[in-house]
Prior knowledge:
The chain has ten helices and six strands; from the N terminus they run E-H-H-H-H-H-E-H-E-H-H-E-H-E-E-H. By secondary structure, it is α/β, with parallel strands linked by helices. The protein has two domains: about 5-15 and about 90-205, 3-Layer(aba) Sandwich (Rossmann fold); about 15-85. A six-stranded parallel sheet has the order 3-2-1-4-5-6.
Amino acid sequence: MYDGIIFDIDGTLWDSRKGVAESWNMALRDCTDYDITLDYEKLGKLFGKPMNEIFAAVFPDMSEERMNELIPVFYTYEHRYLASHPPALYDGTEETLRRLAKRYPLFIVTNAQKGYIECLFEATGIKKYFTDWLCYGDTGAQKDVTMRMLIEKNKLKKPVYVGDTQGDLDACRKADVPMIFAAYGLGHAENPDVTIDAVTDLLRIL
């Protein structure tokens, strides 16, 4: 039915909320005067958005200039922490990817910063299952545009996207790509094309 499967990361392949929150709290303590501690559940509700939008929501009084200074610092803390404290993949993820990769080319499209996909690969060893990947940090574009860029680059005719938020579904609608909603993830979606309750359900429906 499909000629490629495109995956989101957070809430679809793994849950990095605790690790990201801890790394950001370390950066806050070391590099800023903010006397706050970020809660991983509240921070996780913003996952899926580009980093500048997450920062604007978390630090609404921060100037754009200061934001642009701190974002690369937070990237560095985050990548270093996740590399040494990698979140576990959701149960059955690697086996599912291994089996799917024998039948479909697999891809990643995410709104994450540049280097986050590579951080996932280094922490989990799943790079070998993926043909190509693209993120907001590479394109500076909204997810639907990034998705279309990857689709066109790889000459896909009928891909499907696996994601876990309404933002993912909105991007899929704009890009004219059907979406499989990962109900086990971090968000919700209204009227997705298909819903799964575990990543292993992909082996049943694809």
